[in-house]
Amino acid sequence: MDKKYYTYIILTENNTLYCGYTDDVEKRFQAHLDGRGAKYTRINKPQKLVYQKEFSTKSEAMKEEYRIKKLSRKEKLKLFANQ
């Protein structure tokens, strides 16, 4: 079985967005909830996972994360508004 990678966006309790990449979205989201995910999500508590996109390589997922991080908040909201 080929390993899959994901780019994801989390909505935080204070209505900010956090973007990252992983090979296991549920495990990574739980790490964020437990305060083990990232410094940003320790300060800005995760509320829910609002977006995820699957890729076949880590490189593709990282490139998508980089692309998303450069988007405006409005553009990021559009990514998951239609899910």
Structural class: alpha+beta
What fraction, in percent, of the residue positions are helical?
40-55%
Q: Oligomeric form of this entry?
A: single chain
CATH topology: GIY-YIG endonuclease
The low-confidence runs, each spanning 5 or more residues with pLDDT under 50, are none
H/E series: EEHHEHH
CATH-level-2 architecture? 3-Layer(aba) Sandwich
Number of helices: 4
In terms of DSSP E residues, the strand content is: 25-35%
Radius of gyration: 12 Å
**For the record, what is the CATH homologous superfamily label?**
GIY-YIG endonuclease
Number of domains: 1
Major sheet attributes: 3 strands, antiparallel
Query: Termini separation (Å)?
Result: 27 Å
Largest beta sheet: strand ordering: 2-1-3
Mean pLDDT: 95
CATH class: Alpha Beta
Question: Could you explain how this protein is built, in words?
Answer:
The chain is α+β, with helices and mostly antiparallel strands and 83 residues long. The chain has one domain: GIY-YIG endonuclease (3-Layer(aba) Sandwich), CATH 3.40.1440. The protein has helices at 25-33, 39-43, 58-69, 73-81, and strands spanning 5-12, 17-22, 46-55. It has a three-stranded antiparallel β-sheet, with helices on both faces. Strand 1 and strand 2 form a beta hairpin.
